[in-house]
Amino acid sequence: MKTLVIAIEGMHCDGCAETIQGLLSVETGVKAASVSFKDGRARVLYDPVEVDETRIAAAIERGGYKAKLPA
Ligand SMILES: [Cu+2]
C-alpha cells in the first residue's frame, strides 16, 4: 500500500472536497482518501498494483479540478 499526497487547484469550499473524496473512493485500488479544502490537497492510500498516480490524478480532474502530482 502506498500513500500519495496530491495538490488540488479549483476547490471553493468543503463541498468540493467532499465531491473529490467521492470520486477518489470509487476508483479501483483506492483504499482511503481524505481531501482537505483548507490545505488544498488530498491524501490517498492506494494499492499500486491496481492503480497508479496518473489514474488518481485523472479521477480528480474528472470532477473539473486540477490535480498536481508531486514532482
Ligand atoms: Cu465547493
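The first helix runs from residue 14 to 25.
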